[in-house]
């Protein structure tokens, strides 16, 4: 794979300063869309990468690029405030799923051609749906993110491929040394899961036959068909509760605390997202990645946990004054070498077919683990109604796992709460 990172030296990083606009149009540049140059809005983490992409694009096309960084609000929230008044950029880093659906319904992003963007030939199957809404494409994917099992190779040298979830729990019990919410001397954790966050645990519901939205015969999501409280989902919540009660996993540890324990070398296995890989490596952990193993859901049947596949891509503002140049930049910025560097910065699984077959990429065994888990994943439903789900599901986790309320009663109530939220969305 072509290497581009020679320019990512300390000198460049220092030179970029507060805003990457210094590299192109001067720091007085507002980053607004205007004819004759492109304005690309990305989070601060991606500044150095996109400064280089912009430099390369200008060298090849003669079109200047200004990189504007932002914090706080999401890309679509920023665009909703700025775009109608001519104060937005041309291109934005944008999340898929419900965030994209909401933005498209607000009229914020421009549709692009699947054929022009080479969607089916350039991008892996798991990424092709990321920037789509109702069958139309509104950007190009850069990287997907999935939940996986991280393991510390200094504790667990290898995660056995034939392990079931029950085998993993047995291992955790044999390794654990923790108290009831009070720090234990020489504490150790075999398995860490933030059970308060349904984004991490919903894969277990999927293994038991739970689902969020059903689909019609044409494959379209039906917002009123909720599998939140079906028998499988209720059984899954009992399964998670049993892990807590039987001290397979510790109580009252959110994701940040779990990450701290893992990075300090006190945990063997942790369920977390692909975005955490860089932090674990920077902490000096010799980390491996494994897919979530199958769960014994009955005496004769196993279920496969299916995780959400989220991610980010580049989308073009509906208010851009440079539509053709913006589309050209999207194709340029998704070259394999840039997508691979995006993975190194973010931990998101590279979106291109070229990366998925490249020897240098596949030399990273953690990335091989991400690709394996991606096979048992599905994109977050790209409908606005998904935004009505997360708060009630989180409330259900608190009610069941912290307050010990009756599981079936809570899940039936949560379903009604979600339906009410969907009705409010119109």
Q: Notable features of this structure?
A:
alpha/beta, D-Maltodextrin-Binding Protein, domain 2, 40% helix
Describe the structure.
With 426 residues, this protein is α/β, with parallel strands linked by helices. The protein has two domains: 5-145 and 309-379, D-Maltodextrin-Binding Protein, domain 2 (3-Layer(aba) Sandwich); 148-308 and 383-425, D-Maltodextrin-Binding Protein, domain 2 (3-Layer(aba) Sandwich), CATH 3.40.190. It contains 18 helices and 16 strands. The protein has helices at residues 10-16, 47-61, 75-82, 98-105, 119-122, 125-128, 165-175, 198-208, 231-245, 255-263, 277-282, 323-333, 336-346, 353-356, 359-362, 365-374, 390-402, 407-425, and strands at residues 38-43, 65-70, 91-95, 132-133, 136-137, 140-152, 189-192, 211-215, 221-227, 267-273, 287-290, 295-296, 302-303, 307-316, 349-350, 377-379. A hairpin with a 5-residue loop joins strand 12 (295-296) and strand 13 (302-303). The model is unreliable at 2-27 (pLDDT under 50).
């Amino acid at each position: 794979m072509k290497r581009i990172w020679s320019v990512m030296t300390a000198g460049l990083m220092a030179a970029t300063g507060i805003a990457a606009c210094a590299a192109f149009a001067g720091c007085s540049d507002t980053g607004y869309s205007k004819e004759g140059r492109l304005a690309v809005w990305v989070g601060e983490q991606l500044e150095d990468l996109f400064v280089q992409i912009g430099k390369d694009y200008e060298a090849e096309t003669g079109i200047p690029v200004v990189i504007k960084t932002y914090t706080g609000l999401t890309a679509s929230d920023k665009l909703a405030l700025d775009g109608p008044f001519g104060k937005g950029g041309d291109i934005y880093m944008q999340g898929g799923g419900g965030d994209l659906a909401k933005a498209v319904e607000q009229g914020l992003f421009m549709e692009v051609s699947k054929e022009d963007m080479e969607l089916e030939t350039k991008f892996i199957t798991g990424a092709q749906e990321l920037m789509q809404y109702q069958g139309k494409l509104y950007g190009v994917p850069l990287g997907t993110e999935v939940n996986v099992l991280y393991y510390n190779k200094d504790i667990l040298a290898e995660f056995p491929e034939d392990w079931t979830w029950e085998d993993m729990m047995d291992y955790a019990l044999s390794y654990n040394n923790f108290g009831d919410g009070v720090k234990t001397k020489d504490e150790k954790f075999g398995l860490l899961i933030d059970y308060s966050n349904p984004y991490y645990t919903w894969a277990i519901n999927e293994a038991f036959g739970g689902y969020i939205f059903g689909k019609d015969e044409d494959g379209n999501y039906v917002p009123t068909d909720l599998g939140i409280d079906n028998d499988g989902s209720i059984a899954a919540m009992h399964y998670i509760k049993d892990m807590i009660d039987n001290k397979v996993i510790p109580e009252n540890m959110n994701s940040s605390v779990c990450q701290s324990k893992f990075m300090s070398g006190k945990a063997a296995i942790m369920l977390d997202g692909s975005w955490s890989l860089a932090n674990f490596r920077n902490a000096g952990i010799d980390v491996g990645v494994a897919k979530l193993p199958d769960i014994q859901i009955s005496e004769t049947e196993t279920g496969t946990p299916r995780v959400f596949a989220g991610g980010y891509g580049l989308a073009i503002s509906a208010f851009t004054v440079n539509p053709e140049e913006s589309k050209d930049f999207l194709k340029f910025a998704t070259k394999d070498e840039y997508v691979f560097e995006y993975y190194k910065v973010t931990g998101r699984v590279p979106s291109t077919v070229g990366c998925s077959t490249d020897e240098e990429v596949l030399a990273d065994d953690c990335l091989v683990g991400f690709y394996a888990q991606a096979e048992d994943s599905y994109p977050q439903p790209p409908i606005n109604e998904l935004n009505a789900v997360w708060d009630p599901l989180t409330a259900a986790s608190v009610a069941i796992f912290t307050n010990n309320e009756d599981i079936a009663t809570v899940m039936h109530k949560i379903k009604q709460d979600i339906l009410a939220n969907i009705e409010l969305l119109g």
